Amino acid sequence: MKLGVFTPVYGALPRTAMLDRVAALGLDGLELAAGGYPGTAHADPAALLADPAQLEAFRRELAARNLQVLAVSVHGNPLHPDEDRARRDHDDYRRALELAARLNVETVVTFSGCPGGSPADRTPNWITATWPPEFLDALDWQWQERVLPYWSAESAHLRTLGLRVALELHPGFVAYNPATLLKLRAGTGDNVGVNFDPSHLYWQGIDPLVAIRELRGAIHHFHAKDTQLHRQNIERNGVLDLTPYDRISERSWTFRSVGSGHDELHWSRIMAELRLAGYDGAISIEHEDALMSVDEGLHRAVDTLQRVILREAPAQAWWLD
């Protein structure tokens, strides 16, 4: 496994300073934000693709620090019912694919997207209930008319580039749990897989250890981010929480740095499950912990993950003897 960091955490820094910080942490590489919600603070695909000299300079900056790009990330909503918004996010995604291909990076991370509930909608409609019955009609329309046609075409396009996509299971989008990801994968292709981020699973009541087994063979990337569950608030209001993120004491759950929501033994078990599932790829730290500074949160995550990855690394392939 290779340990890296998702670059928006250093969005306020110029690229050279960001790379210096990543190297100083002793990491193997980075998940490069290249459009969509994360923005392009450190890598503007259009500029890099238009100027071979800029792209080569970026490669030299990475090599000088013994770093590699572990994935290119472009979280957006190409299924947005607003056609202009959908086109913009789709174009960002396609440019990210081209940049990944030029950098010899296999994996592009994004969201599955969310359309409206009908051709007349102007805002996304995330459907999570089976009643009243019109919800199921709208859900069927979404998948048959928007989701499967789009991702089937993208699966074919990925195949021409030799790439794969890792869809983050995020509430608000059509693929948000193992069942919806596997439904999408079955209707498209095996180059459509998952960015496994346990932080979005904990608060839905999903056990990441069980989910990893369910998604065996479909895990293309991994986000290392934790969640702390506030049981008293959950018991009062449930987990569908619209309380602003900065009112932490009132929320049902809060994103935390790795090891601050669940203990080290739990994270050791996650690493073991990933290995048992055949995953030996990037472990990309995403920092969104409002209770820790960037440096404090990243050092906590790096220290924890370096220990558990080393602990769970097989000493030798004894089963091949």
TrEMBL record:
Pfam families from the entry? Answer: AP_endonuc_2
* Gene Ontology MF: a single term: isomerase activity
From the record, what ranges are coiled-coil? Answer: none
Xref: InterPro entries: IolE/XylAMocC-like (IPR050312), Xyl_isomerase-like_sf (IPR036237), Xyl_isomerase-like_TIM-brl (IPR013022)
- Note whether Phosphoprotein occurs among the keywords: no
Q: Where is the Xylose isomerase-like TIM barrel domain?
A: 19-291
Q: Which UniProt keywords apply?
A: Isomerase
Where on the tree of life does the source sit, at the highest rank? Bacteria
The record's listing under Gene3D superfamilies reads:
Divalent-metal-dependent TIM barrel enzymes
**This chain belongs to which protein, by name?**
Xylose isomerase domain-containing protein TIM barrel
